[in-house]
Amino acid sequence: MDAEEHTARDPLLVPQDGLSAWLVPMGRVVSLAFLFITAITFLEVVLRYGFNAPTRWVHETTIALTAVCFAFGGAYCLALDRHIRVVLIYDALSPGLRRWFDVVICIVGALACGLMAWVAYDFAYKGFFNASGQFRLETSGSAWNPPTPAIVKAILFLTLCVMCAQFVLQAIRHLRRDPHAEAEHPVQSAGNTPDV
To answer: Is pTM, for the whole model, over 0.85?
Structure first.
């Protein structure tokens, strides 16, 4: 199935810009991580309670992978412009006012993600370097002791930077769009999405 056929069948899965077009296909890959998480959790249950032989790695791997998937979920929702809106107010606005609401939402979102990325940078830096500035990955301190805290902190920082860029790109897109060319209600809530 090519991209045009896919978006014709599901108009809600249209990337909003070039960055989003790069992120959306990654969503399917990231979603497969949840299958892997389920499989290794099932393995842990069988080994722990069936054979009294628990693993050292499943619990921490599950936590780290889930954190990465949820962090990516924010960028994925933003890539498809499916983030939360109060549609009771939004749908009552005229197309011109709705356009300015979208711009303001994007500016506020960019500022929020930028501030969170600024704070996350310090955590990520400390996850990779000790107090004297030498490279040292932060580990979990468990019996397995993987560097998952450093990896998760770095991915969270990068995801926040990507989301900040996405909000800026969407603000530009909303500023350029013609409010009179859009449909009366361009954004549908999940409960009102027609079957395609």
So the answer is: no
